[in-house]
Design brief:
105 residues, mainly alpha, rod-shaped
C-alpha cells in the first residue's frame, strides 16, 4: 500500500478510501480494548486462585509440620527407651564378665 499524505489535498476533500481505513482502525482499537479488559479479568482470577492455592498449601504444610513434630517426639521416646535397654544389657554383660574373671565377688 503506497504512503498517503497526512495533509488533505489542496481541494479541501480527503481521500475517499480514508474513512473505511479509519473505521477499521477504530474497530481494531475497540477490539483491543475489550481483549485487554478480558485479559485483566483473567489475570485477576488467576491471582485469586493462586492466593487460595497458596493458603491451602500453607495450611497443609502446617499440618504436616505438626504431625512430624508429634512423630519425632514419639520416636525420641522410643529411642530413649531402646538406649536405656541397650545400656542395661551392656551393664549386665559386663557384670557377668567381671564376675567370671572374679573381679567382683
Amino acid at each position: 500500500m503506497p504512503d498517503q499524505p497526512i495533509e488533505p489535498p489542496a481541494s479541501g476533500s480527503h481521500d475517499p478510501g480514508m474513512e473505511p481505513r479509519v473505521a477499521v482502525l477504530e474497530q481494531i482499537a475497540a477490539d483491543t480494548r475489550a481483549s485487554v479488559a478480558d485479559l485483566r479479568a483473567e489475570m485477576a482470577d488467576l491471582r485469586a486462585e493462586m492466593r487460595a492455592g497458596f493458603a491451602d498449601l500453607r495450611a497443609e504444610i502446617r499440618a504436616i509440620r505438626t504431625d512430624f513434630g508429634a512423630e519425632m517426639r514419639a520416636m525420641r521416646g522410643d529411642f530413649r527407651w531402646l538406649l536405656g535397654l541397650m545400656l542395661a544389657a551392656i551393664a549386665g554383660i559386663l557384670t557377668l564378665i567381671a564376675h567370671g574373671f572374679h573381679w567382683i565377688p
